[in-house]
């Protein structure tokens, strides 16, 4: 009986909606503080295959790039929008990584992922962990850089 109650409690907690996400759901894991997905994304919200549900509805990096603020708009929206004076990856002449925080050089074609070190520019320009470790702000540098 106790085991059944624990399972029901866990299931209820897992399906609880984020009150900050009006009309949407919050992704789990590292993207939970970043954005709110559209409600119909379900388990695709913030998942590696989020594009299957629609990248502008279910992928936090794309939602963040939209600039839709949760305190002004319904989901999909950004929970903690970047202040207007901060640069974007596009302004830094780069492309946004799937972490929503790193900008790769445009020459990479894709930011991060498998074989990123083999792309034009190498690991320094195309691999998220290497870019994060370099700790260059996009406010003061062109890509590769990190958004504040």
Notes on the protein architecture:
Residues 1-16 form the signal peptide. With 148 residues, this protein is an alpha+beta fold. The chain is built from five helices and six strands. It folds into two domains: 18-78, no CATH class; 94-146, no CATH class. Helices cover 25% and strands 11% of the residues. The strands form two sheets. Strands 1-2-3 form a three-stranded antiparallel β-sheet, covered by helices on one side. Strands 4-5-6 form a three-stranded antiparallel β-sheet, with helices on one face. Strand 4 (94-96) and strand 5 (102-105) form a beta hairpin. The longest helix has 14 residues, at 2-15.
Topology at a glance:
Layout: H1 2-15, E1 24-25, E2 35-38, H2 55-58, H3 60-66, E3 77-78, E4 94-96, E5 102-105, H4 122-126, H5 128-134, E6 145-146
Antiparallel strand pairs: 1-2, 2-3, 4-5, 5-6
Signal peptide: 1-16
Keywords: Signal
| Main beta-sheet strand count, sense and barrel state | 3 strands, antiparallel
H and E string: HEEHHEEEHHE
Q: What structural class do the secondary elements suggest?
A: alpha+beta
**Could you tell me the number of beta strands?**
6
Our measurement of the CA-to-CA distance between the termini, rounded to an integer number of angstroms, reads: 49 Å
Tally of separate helices: 5
Give the percentage of residues in beta strands.
5-15%
Shape: globular
Which residues sit in consecutive blocks of at least 5 with pLDDT less than 50?
1-16
What is the gyration radius calculated from CA atoms? 17 Å
Helix content: 25-40%
Q: What is the residue-mean pLDDT, rounded to a whole number?
A: 80
Strand line-up in the sheet with most strands: 1-2-3
- Estimate nothing, just give the exact number of structural domains: 2
């Amino acid at each position: 009986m106790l085991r059944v109650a624990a399972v029901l409690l866990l299931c209820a907690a897992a399906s609880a909606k984020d009150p900050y996400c009006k009309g949407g759901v919050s992704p789990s894991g590292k993207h939970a503080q970043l954005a709110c997905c559209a409600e119909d994304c379900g388990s695709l919200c913030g998942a590696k295959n989020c594009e299957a549900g629609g990248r502008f509805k279910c992928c936090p990096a794309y939602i963040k790039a939209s600039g839709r603020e949760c305190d002004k708009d319904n989901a999909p929206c950004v929970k903690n929008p970047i202040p207007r004076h901060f640069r974007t990856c596009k302004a830094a002449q780069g492309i946004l990584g799937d972490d929503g925080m790193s900008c790769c050089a445009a020459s990479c074609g894709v930011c991060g992922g498998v074989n990123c070190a083999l792309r034009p520019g190498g690991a320094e320009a195309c691999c998220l962990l290497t870019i994060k470790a370099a700790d260059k702000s996009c406010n003061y540098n062109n890509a590769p850089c990190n958004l504040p």
